[in-house]
Design a protein that fits this description.
- The chain is mainly α.
- 68% of the residues lie in helices and 6% in strands.
- The strands form 2 sheets. It has a 3-stranded antiparallel beta sheet.
C-alpha cells in the first residue's frame, strides 16, 4: 500500500459555498424590514455582510487554504497576544463599542470587529499545538493541563465579562472535546467536567437574566411578555412554517415580532419561510459538513492537524446545534449566531478564514491506495 497525497477536498469546498449561499439568501430575507426602518433601504445589511463578511472571508479562505497549516504554530504566541489584547480593548472607552448593554466590538473604520470570534479560532490552534508538543505531559496536571487550562480560563473570563456567555460556552465546550480527543485520562476529564459544570451553574445564578432564561427553557409560558418573549415568538415562527412554509421572503415574525431576527433567531425565520421539508436541507448541510470535517481530521498527517481539524469542525457543529436547539426549545437561549447565516461580518470573516485552514489540512491529508 502507498500513501496518496490529496488535493483540496472538493466536497468540503462545495458544502462551505452552499452554506454561505443559503446563509446570505436567508439573511437578506430576514434583514429587509429592519434594514428599511433604520436606513431606508432593504439592502443595507446584506451589502455590509457581502462586502465585509463574505468577500473578505472568501479572500481569507482562499489565502489560508494555500498556507501550510503548520505555520500557525510558529506565530501562535503573537496570535494569543493579539487576541487577548483585542479582548481587553473592548472594555476600554474609545476603542470598544457597546450595544444592548454588551461591550463586544472594536471599531475598525466602517467595521465593528468582534474579538471573541477570533478568540475561538486562536484557542483551537493553541490546544492543537499544545497537545502536539506536550504529549508526554498530557496527564500531568501541573506541567501539562494547568498551563492550557489557564489560557482557556483567561480567554473565557475576558469573554464572559463582555458579557458573552454563549460564546464562552462554545469555547469551553470545544476545548473540553479537544482535550478529550487529545487523550487526557477519564479521571482528569471527569474532574474537569465537574468543575466546568459547577462553574457554568454558578455563572447562571450570578446573573439574574441567565437564571430567568433557564427558567423559561423549562417553562416557556412562565413569562411570555418578558424573558420568555423571544423563545415563544421563535416557536410560533417555527410552528407556523409547517411542512412547506409561507415562502421565501414572506415571514411574518420578522416584522418586529421576533427579537434578534438577523442574529440568533434567524433559523426561526428560515423555518417559517421554508417549512420543515426544506429546512431539512440546512440541517443536512451542517451534518454533511461535520462528517467531512471529522474525516479530514481522521486522515490528517499529524496530531496537530488532526486536532486542529477536529476543533474547527466541532466549533461550527456545536454552535449550530446550540443555536438551532435553542430556537426549537431543546436547549436554553444563549444568544450565539448560526454559522454562515447570522448577521455579523467578523463572525463570517473568521468562520471562512478557519475554513481555509481546514481546506489546507484536507490538502495535506493522506489516504491509502494499492501499489
Amino acid at each position: 500500500m502507498a500513501k496518496k497525497k490529496q488535493k483540496i477536498n472538493l466536497q468540503l469546498l462545495l458544502i462551505i459555498l452552499l452554506l454561505l449561499g443559503f446563509g446570505l439568501t436567508a439573511l437578506y430575507s430576514a434583514s429587509t424590514v429592519e434594514s428599511f426602518e433604520r436606513f431606508g433601504t432593504t439592502t443595507y445589511f446584506i451589502f455590509h455582510q457581502l462586502i465585509y463578511g463574505a468577500l473578505l472571508g472568501l479572500i481569507g479562505m482562499f489565502t489560508l487554504s494555500k498556507i501550510d497549516y503548520h505555520v500557525w504554530q510558529k506565530y501562535l504566541p503573537a496570535m494569543i497576544f493579539i487576541s487577548l489584547f483585542s479582548l481587553l480593548l473592548v472594555k476600554i472607552s474609545g476603542f470598544g463599542y457597546e450595544s444592548g448593554g454588551a461591550s463586544r466590538w472594536i471599531n475598525i473604520g466602517p467595521v465593528n470587529f468582534q474579538p471573541a470570534e477570533l478568540a475561538k479560532l486562536v484557542i483551537i490552534i493553541y490546544l492543537a499545538s499544545w497537545a502536539d508538543k506536550k504529549r508526554q505531559y498530557l496527564n500531568n496536571f501541573w506541567f501539562g493541563l494547568m498551563p492550557s487550562l489557564t489560557i482557556v480560563g483567561l480567554f473565557s473570563f475576558l469573554i464572559l465579562i463582555q458579557p458573552d456567555f454563549g460564546t464562552m460556552t462554545v469555547l469551553v465546550g470545544v476545548a473540553a472535546l479537544m482535550l478529550f480527543v487529545a487523550g487526557i485520562s477519564l479521571k482528569n476529564f471527569f474532574w474537569l467536567g465537574l468543575a466546568g459544570a459547577l462553574s457554568l451553574y454558578g455563572f447562571i445564578l450570578f446573573e439574574p437574566y441567565r437564571a430567568k432564561r433557564l427558567t423559561t427553557f423549562l417553562d416557556p409560558g412562565a413569562d411570555p411578555q418578558g424573558v420568555g418573549y423571544q423563545i415563544n415568538q421563535a416557536l410560533l415562527a417555527v410552528g407556523a412554517g409547517g411542512l412547506w412554509g409561507y415562502g421565501y421572503g414572506l415571514s411574518r415574525q420578522k416584522y418586529n415580532y421576533l427579537p434578534e431576527v438577523m442574529g440568533d433567531s434567524i433559523f426561526a425565520v428560515i423555518a417559517e419561510e421554508l417549512g420543515f421539508a426544506r429546512v431539512i436541507i440546512v440541517l443536512a448541510l451542517f451534518t454533511w459538513f461535520a462528517i467531512k470535517g471529522y474525516q479530514i481530521a481522521k486522515n490528517a498527517p499529524d496530531i496537530f492537524g488532526r486536532l486542529l481539524a477536529f476543533g474547527i469542525t466541532s466549533w461550527i457543529a456545536i454552535q449550530a446545534i446550540i443555536n438551532i436547539g435553542a430556537m426549537i426549545n431543546l436547549l436554553p437561549l444563549t444568544g450565539i449566531p448560526l454559522p454562515f447565516f447570522s448577521y455579523g461580518s467578523s463572525s463570517l470573516l473568521v468562520t471562512l478564514a478557519s475554513m481555509g485552514i481546514l481546506l489546507n489540512i484536507s490538502k495535506q491529508s493522506y489516504t491509502y491506495r494499492p501499489r
